[in-house]
Amino acid sequence: MPPYDARGEENGRKRHRAVLIGVEHYTGTRNDLPAVATNLRLMREALTAERTGVLGPDDLVVISADGADSSSGPKGPDMGSRPQGPDMGSGPKGGTPKDPAPAVDPLRVRAALAAARRDVTGLLVVYFAGHGIVRPDGSDLNLMFTDSRVTRDRHHPFVDTLSWRDDVMPELRNSRADWVVVILDCCFAGNALRAFSPAAGQNFALLTAAEPGVEIPPGDPRTGTEFTAALHRLLTTGEEEPVTFTRTVAGIRRAMAPLKAVDGHPWIPDELRHGDDVVLAHPVDAEPPPPTGLALEDGPPTAVTTRGPRSSAQALPRRLLAALAHRLTRTTAVALAGVVALAAAGAWYLLGAPSGGDCASPLELRVLTDPDLKSTVQKAADAYPKRDGHGCRTVGINVYDAKATDAVAALRSSSLWQEPPATCPASGECPRPQRDVGAQPDIWIPAAGSAWQRATAGGAGGGNASSATGSGKPGADAGRSVVDLDRLGSVAYTPMVLGVPDTMALAQSLQTDDPLGTIVTALEAGQPVEILRPDPEDTEGALLATDALYASSGSGRASTVEQGMAQALRPMPSTARELMCVLADGAHNDLEDRAAVLVPEQTLAQFNLSAGEPGRPGCASEALAHRVAHYPSDVPMLDLPFVRVTWAGADRDADARTAAVEDFYEWLATDPDAQKCFTDDGFRGVGDKGGPAAPADDSMLRSEDNTTAVREQIPVTGPDADASASLSDTLSRYRGALGPGRVLYLLDNSTSMADKRVWDGTGGAKELVARSMTSLGAGDSYGVRMAAVAEGKPATDLVPFGPNTRAVAQKAVAGAGTAAFDARIAAGLDAALGTLRGEATGAEQPRLLVLVTDGEDFEAVAEKEQKRLVAEAGKTPLVRIVTVSLQDGACTPGRFGERLADASGGRCLDPADDIAAELAAEVARTGTGDAE
User: In sequence order, what are the beta bridge partners of 4?
Assistant: First the structure.
């Protein structure tokens, strides 16, 4: 089909827009980019040139260092109804201050993108020029703004940035536009391609200045950056044919081929496209588009408010002027404008004034929700303004999501939205709601009432209770509460389920009314299985499932649960949908066939749908087995509570805002169109008495694909009165289980190791230990002890236990020698267990004891002593013991090494195993080196 053309007749009445973002000035140590100002001028020219441009000046929103958006399109959302901090939460700046310069704020950009997502129905172009930054593994491209900075916080390393993956792409994925085109001119722009995830059927193109991992030069202030200057030439000098996106890609690559990026890398712009093609410029000999009005003065476009649909009388002057304007002199045009205005006034009088007139800027409501709910809540919010029959939105709704734990912590300490802490600790762990969550919400729709319980524990609206009952993160409740959190009711329901592949053996009687531990035990008894769930920091559903998992695992076993999951899949995806997508790609050694997943029922139902069925996720594939839902009795149902957030001191439009919030709730909970937004995505609607309704005939839960997978009638479970304390404890255990590890190597260095040629060389004891250390990081405590000592003497430290430099530790192991003594295995194990369990560390902190031996002295331990040591190995805090025997047969059932492994949840490895790979994997389950 022909490429999409915003100037085509069929698209003339649609709303088009370009959001041009340029960040020229930076605080702290990051260099300014003076070429950005030229870049913005070039992009304005390229998109709005008289003959070649696809947009008009009125279609531009320019966000730059002038301190205000230069726009003749709709303004951003109303920011003034809530008290704000002095600098919108940007906090202290790093480095030596430069001369004050106008700031480009990520909140302005986010608001502009949200407005474009809602308003644009035709072509949407988004352009960014500035600094870009990624994590050490190249993931999570962040666009940097004036006050952006980098911290040492591993979870939130970037402050006052926008994540392409978490902020920009999700916003644009939900756009109403016919076509979305994004152009990124920044370092690491190509890394955005890793998180390019358009919606199914969406037309979306992404053009990046270079390939992944490549940095680019800052450009010349007079001519702009090389990439944007070349793009400008391509879009303004095309001949004969329109310049489509695909032609642009080919042309820009030819233009950049002679140039080199930073460090001599080839400069190759990159792209991804989802859809056919789109026109970005017309040939120079094309007829200019009809002007939208008479520009009687030169200069930048003037900002105006959003306009609603015009009546035929209102449109008359514009149609006449559009047809004649380019043929008139200035004087004649002024005269004709007056005549047409009089004619329009007469038509207005004869035909009647439009009922709605020009639309005022709508009241903006901000809705914070759980990542598992974002797409459905967004769909419902987009449908809500359409209820106005006059075409004018009286209420605009901006939906955004945040990690469930961050949302709870922010609402408990809501004053930090307005008064961010003046300084942060050296760790970088600094609560900043504007960074971690976003703008101050008017509405909060968490996945479950347990989140509301945690946010309000200890006092109304969050109070000043300790973090033990709230976020679960020490020091998280650093501020005070300045909000009231009023729970109005539920807007939909979905139970948490254990999705079991239908190829696995599990009694149907276990589908309902049994606790999670009982279901998992029966499942594991029948076949090998991996139990997976998303990161409990991110979604409330995953946290509730984790709470039940830990309850069935016993004290001190959370680390075993988490290390098992990490061994199967690392890192753990953030949402239920992302987890299912990862399994669907079929790239994890048949994990998709072995995994039972704890996810919301609606997610399971979506992924069970056959190809071509409405509602089936775009990432779903035939590799993913059909799954049957089992409903654990001890995992509460997700009841999607609608919470009104009222801010102290926000009095300017309090009555109108309260009325708008309540109207939105009533619509969501009772209107059939609103409820259909949820039920179409697999949720259960709200019944007559406020509880979950049975699925309707057209629900995907009743589809042929889900007939045997889900239950129509299910027991209703909900959080009990102690949910806050229990979930906070679960979060603490989870964080401890994934925290820095404690690893102690006990190395048999007796002369028999050298005699049997298992001490030096490839596959020898020293090489095995040194290689496995690559999974240990700077935060881990570890050491190496030599077990061959004189009788009655303790094992000697080769590498003292504690934080170490990995290279130094590996060098010490490589240079170690043997000793002419027997290895004191029993005494060494006793002392090592004492060391690993010592000090005031959390019960869930991962602990690992690695014993490497040739088996001679190991098997010589007396049977009575073996029994005592096996009993000691099973005590808490749990220490996993991995015995590496370099002698065949040492790990057969009943032998000492296997009994130690069974008691501690560890392993016994002998030459029948791939010892090097398996030992490295075991250490990786405890250490944090690979994660760093």
Answer: 278
CA distance 770 to 766: 6
CA 343 to chain centre: 55
For residues 216 and 914, the model is more confident at 216
**DSSP code of 749?**
-
User: What crossing angle do the helices spanning 558-568 and 540-553 adopt, rounded to 10°?
Assistant: 120
CA distances, 878 to each of 474, 734, 872, 926 (Å) = 23, 15, 10, 12
**Beta bridge pairs of residue 532:** 597
- Strands (DSSP E) found in 392-527: 395-401, 443-445, 483-490, 496-501
- Asked whether 209 and 130 are in contact (CB, 8 A), the reply is no
Query: Helices (H), strands (E): how many in the chain?
Result: 28, 27
Banded model confidence at residue 294, pLDDT cuts 50, 70, 90: very low
Cα–Cα distances (Å) from 102 to 65, 97, 145, 222, 477, in that order, read 5, 13, 11, 20, 33
How remote is the C-alpha of 586 from its chain's centroid?
A: 22
DSSP 882: E
Structure tokens at 814: 């490589």
CA 260-261-263 angle, to 5 degrees, is 100
What 3-state class would DSSP assign to 128? strand
Beta strand 880-885 with 907-909 is: parallel
**Phi and psi at residue 127, to the nearest 5°:** -125, 135
Q: Chain centroid to CA 743: how far? A: 31
Tell me which of 29-33, 353-357, 760-764 is least confident. Answer: 353-357
One-letter amino acid for residue 498 of the chain:
L
Who wins on pLDDT, 590 or 599? 599
- On the 0-12 / 13-18 / 19+ scale of CB atoms within 10 A, 569 is middle
pLDDT in tens, 120-174: 999 999 999 999 999 877 788 999 999 898 876 667 788 889 999 989 999 999 8
What local confidence, expressed as pLDDT, does residue 318 receive? 39
**Half-sphere exposure in the Cβ direction for 327 (13 Å, CA):** 6
User: What is residue 582's DSSP assignment?
Assistant: H
Contact in structure between 701 and 603 (CB atoms under 8 Å): no
Whole-angstrom CA distances from 711 to 495, 496, 497 are 11, 12, 11
SS3 content of the chain, % helix, strand, coil (to 5): 35, 15, 45
pLDDT by residue (tens digit) across 625-670? 899 999 999 899 999 999 999 998 877 788 989 999 999 999 999 9
In what helix (H) or strand (E) does residue 752 lie, and over which residues does it extend?
helix 751-755
| Contact (Cβ atoms closer than 8 angstroms) between residue 472 and residue 742 | no
- Apex CA 156: angle with CA 582 and CA 161, to 5°? 95
Token pair for residue 860?
A: 């010589």
Q: What is the DSSP string of 221-285?
A: TTTB-HHHHHHHHHHHS--SS-EEHHHHHHHHHHHHTT-B-GGG-B---EEEEESS-BEEE--TT
Contact 764, 912 (CB under 8 A): no
